[in-house]
Amino acid sequence: MKSLSRLKYIKCGSSIMDLSPVSTSNKFRRMRMQEFWNLVETYLSKGRICRILDLGGTIEFWRTWGSVFDLSETEIVCINTFDQPADFVLPNVTCIKGDACNLSQFSDSTFDVVFSNSCIEHVGAWPQMSQFASEVRRVGRSYFIQTPNFWFPIEAHARMPFIHWLPDQITYRLHMMTKTGFYPKADDVEGAMEIVEDARLLDIRQMRTLFPDAEIQKEKFFGLTKALVAVRRKKSAVGEMGESWGEVVANEPGREKQAAI
After folding, report:
1. Cα angle vertex 81, ends 199, 117, to 5°?
2. Which of 21, 40, 100, 146 might form a disulfide with 55, Cβ 3.0–4.6 angstroms?
3. How far is 124 from 121, CA to CA, in rounded Å?
4. Tens of pLDDT along 122-162?
């Protein structure tokens, strides 16, 4: 069976309409990345380098999006659970093997923006998620944290409807019966349970609790919330962002903004 560290790499940035984790063709990902880049530009507009921390990030992701956005005035650090080779095409992107729940190597507000795409659901149980969120809020002046919504009927990683709402005793058997989305068919119960426990999806109330100083944005698909994004802007940037995703940015922490598609 494939190691889950590799699976997590494959899943980083996944979305319901496009199986590629880094493709720019997916509508939701394009809108999400534009929203993220609007946040980055509030720092670039000051005429200085923007420092970005990508939790769960890969060099492949930034190589792809470097063809869409000008990364020349950024410094990007990717933290992931495996080693990644240096990329001479993107010398300003550094990849570090590490733990997204323990960023003790970085001081407070080291980064202008902390970015994470479909990562927090993989770090473990609630204590690990809380530590992840605490570190995000500590090391970043702003942050942009996306995760699939628990209440969306199609599970974002298994690509199967309702599977994440079933008891583990049923779910692991399904993983032993067939390949599901990014996951290979499990050979035994141990492998199946590793898949079951790989991702713990969050709902909006949990995201508000983890990120109390953020706006919680909703990505919509046919009226259903498919993903949640916690966004904190530096105080001087609030009100500079204008309109995005069809709605005016809410200024109050904890306010929701629905993402029009």
Report:
1. 55
2. 100
3. 7
4. 999 999 999 999 999 999 999 999 999 999 999 999 999 99
| Angle ∠(66,67,73) on CA atoms, nearest 5 | 40
Query: What's the pTM value of the predicted model, to 2 decimals?
Result: 0.80
**Count, residues in the chain:** 261
- Rounded Cα gap, residues 198 and 223, in angstroms: 28
Same domain assignment for residues 203 and 85 = yes
Q: What is the extent of the structural domain holding 147? A: 4-151+199-259
Same structural domain, 99 and 213: yes
138 and 162 in a common domain: no
Q: Which residue type, as a one-letter code, is found at position 39?
A: L
Does the pLDDT value for residue 17 go beyond 60?
Answer: no
The CATH number that applies at residue 122 is 3.40.50.150
Written as six digits, the tokens of 202 are 């969050």
Sign of CA dihedral 158, 9, 201, 148: negative
The amino acid that residue 104 corresponds to is: S
Per-position DSSP letters for the chain, written without gaps between them: ---HHHHHHHHTT-BTTB--SS-S--HHHHHHHHHHHHHHHHHHTTTSPEEEEEET--HHHHHHHTTTS--TTEEEEEEESS-----TT-TTEEEEE-BTTB-TTS-TT-EEEEEEES-GGGS-SHHHHHHHHHHHHHHEEEEEEEEEBTTSSB-TTT--BTGGGS-HHHHHHHHHHS-BTTBPPPSSHHHHHHHHTT---B-HHHHHHH-TTSEEEEEEETTEEEEEEEEE--GGGTTTS-EETTEEPP-STT-EEEE--
